[in-house]
Each structure stands twice: as structure tokens, then as C-alpha cells.
Write a structure and sequence with these properties.
Blueprint (H helix, E strand, L loop, with lengths): L12 H21 L7 H8 L5 H35 L12 H14 L4 H24 L6 H25 L5 H9 L9 H14 L3 H7 L3 H6 L4 H23 L5 H13 L3 H25 L8 H21 L1
Helix pairs in contact: 1-3, 1-13, 2-3, 3-8, 3-11, 3-12, 3-13, 4-5, 4-6, 4-11, 5-6, 5-11, 8-11, 9-13, 12-13, 12-14, 13-14
Protein name: Iron(III) dicitrate transport system permease protein FecD
Membrane topology: Multi-pass membrane protein
GO molecular function: transmembrane transporter activity
Length: 332
């Protein structure tokens, strides 16, 4: 299993966060401007100020801005969950979906779609499925004793495979008119993501909750025995990290569907650049993940406009070669 390499001093916190904050504003601006109809900066500014044409205001305020904000929040949640999972499992190649959370959310959402429920009910069912999967994995991994990162990982892989079988069964028995919407959601789709308030509240809350854990996570990354010797309540810390990562993953999946590689690639790349100090890595991951998914969604809307691609296709096309490179580099 890959291990965290020792890192040098982290980059200056204000500089890193300032650069990423500027990148976040630029990515959101680009997302609002670009699409099947490209808007000039003056048109976007006029729409925000209540002027301009009715079409520009509708495109900016009702279509693109809510979708861009939802994409940024979902990307930030996935990257934050990835950073937390990599510390929890002490594996820099861990992913927030590795514990079957996305599979449980997908099953819940598909069941709601099959029942003909509305968008709000589908989102609620996805969240319920994600949390049910979380409790199932944790309960099975814990058993009658304590769980270890390896046992938790293997349990998650098995449960995720089980959810995959259920998803395949549901898609096989469902009439074809329902399939496009289901498949788009499974591949990651922000086309129906109009509600950005909940994911943004979850993102801000999760970052604020994770920051005080930074010092303990730095010690935990070196191993549970050393962390215990240095006074860290290891079991309590692991439970807190696991539950926080599962919750933010559930919110992200509920918002955007199952989008892969964001939680894997972003924390790993940042760790190579800024070091392994979790007090900087966690907020930086939230910003960088938001930037990545916002730009990926913008590309998904524009590459074959006026048609749209599932954003999960874009993140996979970007993530697979990067993951292979990182895997090759870790063996060097």
C-alpha cells in the first residue's frame, strides 16, 4: 500500500489560499460567460446589476450561476472528502467513493426515479442511500471488535461491488424511456443541480469543522501508534474523520451524481506542491476541487454545444491519465 512521503515545509498559507481564491473567482466567471451562447463580460456584469437583456439575465442568474455554484460546492466537498479519506486510510491514492457511499446514493436515487418521485425526493433518497451505505460499511468493518484501515477499505470495496450489482439489476428491469436520465445521473450530471444552498452550507461547515483537526491529522498520518504516543485520541479522531468524509461525500453525490477522480487527484496533486500539512491541505483541497469541477462542467457544456456531456465523463478523461502518472511516479 502506498504511504505518505515526508514533505518539506508547506507553502505559505496566505499565498496559496489567495491564489486558489483568485482561481475560484476566475473559474466561476468563465462558467457564467461560456456556453452554447457566449456572453461578454459587460453583459454578465449588467445582468448582475439588473440591467441588460432579459435573455442575458435569465441565462446568467437562472441557469449558469446556480449550476456553477453547485458545481463548485460539489467539487470542493469531493476534494475535501478525498483529503480526509487519504489520511484516514493512510493511503494517498484513497478516494471518497471507495467505501461504497456513491453506490448507496445511486441505488437510493434510482429507486426514487423508478417510483416517479420529484427532484427533491430523488435528492433525499440519494442522501438516505449514501448514509445507509456508510452505516453498513462501518458496522460490517467494525464487527465485534475494532476496525483497521485495511478492513474498512476491503469492506467498502465489497459493499460497493454489491451496490454495483443492484444498480445493474435496476437498469436492466427498468423500461428504456427512463434510462437516459438514470445513466446521466450515474455518470455525474449537474444539469438539474439548481439548489446550491445546501452544498455550500455543507462545504463551509465541513471546512470549519476540519480545520481544528489539522494538527491531529498531521500526527495521525504518521501512524496510529505514534499518534497515540503524542497524545492524539486515535479512535475518536478516526470516527470523526470517517463520519465527516462520508457526510460531505453524500451531499456531493446528492448534488451532482457520481463524479469520480476529483477526490483522488486534487488532494494528491496539492500534496506534491504544498506539502502534507493538513491545516493548509484541507482548505486548499476544497478550493482546488471546486475549481476543477467548475471548469470540467463548463467544458462539458461547451465542447459539443448545444448538447451537453455528463461532467463525470470530463473528470474521468482528465483523471485517468493523471492517476496513471501518479501511480507510475509512486513506484519510481
Amino acid at each position: 500500500m502506498p504511504a505518505f512521503r515526508r514533505s518539506g515545509a508547506s507553502a505559505p498559507v496566505p499565498a496559496v489560499l489567495a491564489v486558489l481564491s483568485a482561481g475560484a473567482l476566475l473559474s466561476l466567471t468563465a462558467s457564467v460567460m461560456l456556453g452554447s451562447v457566449t456572453l461578454a463580460p459587460s453583459e454578465v456584469a449588467a445582468a448582475f446589476l439588473g440591467g441588460g437583456s432579459d435573455l442575458a439575465r435569465m441565462v446568467v442568474l437562472e441557469l449558469r450561476l446556480p449550476r456553477a455554484l453547485a458545481a463548485f460546492a460539489a467539487g470542493g466537498l469531493l476534494a475535501l472528502a478525498g483529503a480526509l479519506m487519504q489520511v484516514l486510510l493512510r493511503n494517498p491514492l484513497a478516494d471518497p467513493y471507495i467505501l461504497g457511499v456513491s453506490g448507496g446514493a445511486a441505488v437510493g436515487a434510482l429507486l426514487a426515479m423508478i417510483a416517479g418521485l420529484g427532484l427533491a425526493s430523488v435528492s433525499g433518497a440519494a442522501f438516505a442511500g449514501a448514509m445507509a451505505s456508510t452505516l453498513l460499511v462501518f458496522g460490517l468493518a467494525h464487527g465485534t471488535g475494532s476496525w483497521t484501515p485495511t478492513r474498512l477499505l476491503l469492506t467498502g470495496v465489497v459493499v460497493a461491488a454489491g451496490w454495483g450489482a443492484v444498480i445493474t439489476f435496476l437498469l436492466a428491469v427498468r423500461p428504456s424511456p427512463e434510462l437516459p436520465g438514470m445513466l446521466y445521473w450515474l455518470m455525474g450530471d449537474l444539469g438539474q443541480a439548481r439548489g446550491f444552498t445546501v452544498p455550500w452550507i455543507a462545504l463551509v461547515t465541513a471546512v470549519l469543522l476540519a480545520l481544528p483537526l489539522g494538527r491531529g491529522l498531521n500526527v495521525l498520518a504518521r501512524g496510529p501508534l505514534q499518534a497515540a504516543v503524542l497524545g492524539v485520541a486515535v479512535r475518536r479522531m478516526e470516527w470523526t474523520v470517517y463520519l465527516l468524509a462520508a457526510l460531505v461525500t453524500a451531499v456531493a453525490v446528492t448534488t451532482a451524481g457520481t463524479i469520480g477522480f476529483v477526490g483522488l487527484i486534487v488532494p494528491h496533486m496539492l500534496r506534491l506542491v504544498i506539502g502534507n500539512d493538513q491545516r493548509l491541505l484541507l482548505p486548499a483541497s476544497a478550493l482546488a476541487g471546486g475549481i476543477l469541477l467548475t471548469l470540467a462542467d463548463t467544458l462539458a457544456r461547451t465542447v459539443i454545444a448545444p448538447q451537453q456531456l455528463p461532467v463525470g465523463v470530463i473528470t474521468a478523461m482528465l483523471g485517468v491519465p493523471v492517476f496513471l502518472y501518479l501511480l507510475y511516479r509512486s513506484r519510481a
